[in-house]
Amino acid sequence: MRPAHDFKPRIMGFLCNWCSYAGADLCGVSRYQYPPSVRIIRVMCSGRVDLEFVLRAFTRGMDGVFVGGCWLGECHYVTEGNYDALSMMHLGKKLLQEAGLNPDRLRLEWISASQGNRFAEVMTEFTNELKEIGPLGAGEGMSDETLALKLEAIRKVLPFVKLVEREKLRVRFENKEQYAEYFDGPEATRLFKDQIADKLTISQILLLLKDRMLTTGEIAAQLGINSSNVAKFLTESSRQRLIRFDQAEKRYALV
Ligand code: FES
């Protein structure tokens, strides 16, 4: 675990080639100052940024992930990938939150090729925000072991998340505010809870049981959720023959 004092947040930035990357380039050429701990990966469109990339960045120790794209209506592709990036960001934030991580660690902004100063401002602001939140995991009061388990649990459900996104959560609105309203609203919240959140909890339980047998209470304590909820997931997982109750040990184990 990294010490919180003199904490310099590490940020991975995925920047669209046509706008934000050019904006970052202009920022450098114009000698605008921004924190040096930002690592940049150029992508052809913000819509190319997969949740898998975001998760990999966190797994490799980044404290924040930034996605930069063209302003809405200015994407260089007919598919207008920046709308997909908006959905991806909201789903990513929900996944982080569900796993107990701060959703503000993921940020999406539009930056055009002529906005070098905006790139510097956004990066400085994001860095300061992450300084307040703290190092990944430690900022949420998690041990390194718990953090690794949460990230791995998210990774395991990602294929399913993408399927749900494509089948049920692919929406199209005009602006950022409407996306936020939809993803924070009752329909998306219910869909996320029913289709994704429960699978994420089960994924965490299965990972915990990989190493040792555990009681309901022990699982609840490690995941920070109440025992009756855990009991519900254990019953469901037993029914699906993913886990079993060991009578001799009085604990749950993987099948
Ligand atoms: Fe920049 Fe699509 S080309 S967001």
Q: If you had to describe this structure to a student in words, what would you say it looks like?
A:
With 255 residues, the protein is α/β, with parallel strands linked by helices. It folds into two domains: 1-197, no CATH class; 209-255, Winged helix-like DNA-binding domain superfamily/Winged helix DNA-binding domain (Arc Repressor Mutant, subunit A). It contains nine helices and six strands. It has helices at residues 20-29, 51-59, 81-98, 116-133, 144-167, 176-184, 186-211, 216-223, 227-239; strands spanning 11-16, 38-43, 64-69, 106-110, 243-246, 251-254. A four-stranded parallel beta sheet has the order 2-1-3-4, sandwiched between helices. α7 packs across α9 (227-239). The longest helix is centred in the last third of the chain and has 26 residues, at 186-211. FE2/S2 (inorganic) cluster binds at residues 16, 18-19, 45-47, 69-70, 75-77, 81-82. The site of FE2/S2 (inorganic) cluster has 13 residues, from α3.
The assembly state of the depicted protein chains is single chain
Derived from helix and strand composition plus strand pairing, the structural class reads alpha/beta
Strand content: 5-15%
The distinct ligands, each listed once, are: FE2/S2 (inorganic) cluster
Order of strands across the main sheet = 2-1-3-4
Shape: globular
N to C succession of SSEs:
EHEHEHEHHHHHHEE
Radius of gyration: 20 Å
> Averaged pLDDT, please?
94
Domain module tally: 2
DSSP E strands, number: 6
Q: Estimate the helix proportion, in percent.
A: 40-55%
Tally the helices.
9
Low-confidence stretches: none
